[in-house]
Amino acid sequence: MGLNDTPNGERLHIGFFGKRNVGKSSLVNAVTNQELSVVSPVKGTTTDPVSKAMELLPLGPVLIIDTPGFDDEGELGDLRVKKTRQILNRADCAVLVVDALQGKTPADEEMIALFQEKDIPYLVAYNKCELVPPLPLEEHEIAVSALQKLNLEFLKERIGQLTKTEAENQRLVRDLLSPGDLVVLVTPIDSAAPKGRLILPQQQTIRDILDAEACSLVVKETGLPEVFRKLAVPPALVITDSQAFAQVNRDTPKEIPLTSFSILMARYKGFLETAVKGVAAIDTLQDGDKILISEGCTHHRQCNDIGTVKLPKWLREYSKKELQLEYSSGLGFPEDLSPYRLIIHCGACMLPQREVLYRQKCAQDAGVPFTNYGITIAHLKGILKRSIELFPHLHQLLL
User: Fold this and answer.
1) Per CATH, which fold does 271-380 belong to?
2) At the N or C end, where does the chain have fewer CB atoms within 10 A?
3) pTM for this structure?
4) CA dihedral in degrees (164, 165, 171, 176; nearest 10)?
5) Regarding predicted confidence, which is higher, 384 or 67?
6) Distance in angstroms between the alpha carbons of the first and the last residue of the chain
7) 156-192 pLDDT per residue, tens
8) What CATH number should be reported for the domain whose range is 3-167?
């Protein structure tokens, strides 16, 4: 996978914010060296967030987001401001663009307070600096000129410094392996599988295994017993697609650790412990309880879709209750979570970590348990304890 093929969920999300007509779009175009956004002296030219996935040196693969002015007016303006605030939920870094001729306004200070409230690293970029005397700048401020391309490289360096976070140390599975270990990956190929390729979590797991100097063996669920018969040495770990959990559990000797791609992805995105705690709510569901099943992508749903067909079926069979199920996908996520008794999220491979953790925090604030597909399916199939034995501190939660 080249840098241009890096999924958006694995890119740094850099949001450019500011009032109307301060030069946000001009600065975005100058930083990216592309005509990414339409530039005009008319206020409110940018009416919707504009995103561009690209390689931005020295940062690497990023997603640049140009947002509408947060001081927009009227009914449509309110909708644009709402979209701008939604971008904050998935921004790894924020650049507040201020007109150097005007200086910071109360509206700018409100936006800075919002950055701080959401714990988003930010810079203040005083655009049009060529029109004013040298500015007294604080540590998080920088003077730039989109027109004359002044200090743009320094701005990119500062953004790079802000985005050096714990994400650089995230691991899917490599820290659980030793060099030379063999890992068996079980990947069902059914109508929902993408033609000619593996899904993203499977690709990422293979890469992480290689980075651990370990070996991966990929097999369909129907071929797993034959693999065990042929292996001279048992594998260090078996990782399966969640929908095949029950069958793989039966076919995998009990002494071999077993988990799923979805569980590892929840760990990678930072909400595995929350998911393990949240799944217990399934055992207390009552008739009429409303459950939100949320996916981070917007793929075409198949006739036997995991989120809208298989998971609801297993939930009803397990709970024996008449449940109300609602669904969300992509960046659509309900603002009011209070009606829900439980939220079951996908592995979130297509979402940036900040967006996933924001959704988790919203659920926490609303007092709604939050879990994911892999943990849910393991619980419904009675194999949750086995599936998280790799993580003793989580295993203790089930004792």
Assistant:
1) Rossmann fold (3.40.50)
2) C
3) 0.74
4) 110
5) 384
6) 41
7) 888 888 876 544 556 789 999 999 999 999 998 765 5
8) 3.40.50.300
